[in-house]
Amino acid sequence: MKTLLDVVEAGSFAAAARERQVPPNTLSRQVQRLERDLGIRLLQRTTRSLGLTSSGRELVTGARVALAQLEQQLQEVSSQAKEPRGHLRVTVPSDFFSLGLADRMAHFMEEHPGISLEFLLSDEQVDLIESGVDLAVRAGVVRDANLVARQLTESRLIVVASPACIARHGAPRTPKALAAYPCLASRGRNGYATWQLAGPRGTASVPVRAKLTANGMGALIAAAKAGLGAALVPRALVQASLADGTLVQLMDRYHGFSPGVFAVYPSRLHQSAALKKLVAFLVEEAAKLAR
Questions:
Q1: pTM confidence score
Q2: Fewer Cβ in 10 A, N or C end of the chain?
Q3: Which residues, at least 6 apart from 159, have a Cβ–Cβ distance to it below 8 Å?
Q4: How far is CA 109 from its chain centroid?
Q5: Are the C-beta atoms of 289 and 237 separated by less than 8 Å?
Q6: Within the chain, which residues score under 50 in pLDDT?
Q7: What is the largest CA-CA distance in the chain?
Q8: What pLDDT, in 10s, does the model give residues 203-212?
């Protein structure tokens, strides 16, 4: 289509070929192929003149508008590689915004008004490519070779409880004492769960009584603050609660490990400026939580 417009505007194949610095027959073959694909003649050619058929005039009129719009769209998309603009689809755990991150995301959007965000809250690991997702925040090791994973936190786990819970049930000093202590777990079966805790004598598997189970850290932290029991949670997510006294760390010589939390995206090649800014922002905010 661009070749057809160039030929019409230049007035001849020879003139258009000179502007493009290609042989005239190259342009002639392209227009002939377009006519063959459409099944209709677009140009009337003689040895002295070149003119459009009625179908050619109709097509050229629409093509000018369409190609101008396409050029504008190409420039718009290309500029997103340099300027943080555009729409991003992000999948995050269902309790993402209950962890005090809403204010931080609001600050990010104020800093980058050209970026719009669409959050998909789900604890399922959706297929990023099939779902058209630009970025995922996930806990655990990423084994898909088609994805890039940027670690946000190492997620050292600690056992915490509220002052009210400790007042009622005491403060367990060893992992063994947790067997009789009300606990809050992310996974449990028949009222029990297993915590892996490392301490002065190595790592031990500790069976705990799961008084409450939930599939989100935000829910476990809220339940622990409410005094329902002890929870094994990432230190980074409870730093503020430890500082203000709403939660207390138990058995400070023992801790657990999780693989960490990662920012995951389909490819490190040709990322948009918006995606780069969002990943950098999440890395920075995760570092603040870990302090």
A1: 0.61
A2: C
A3: 178, 195, 197, 230, 231, 232, 249, 250, 251, 254
A4: 15
A5: yes
A6: none
A7: 102
A8: 888 899 888 9
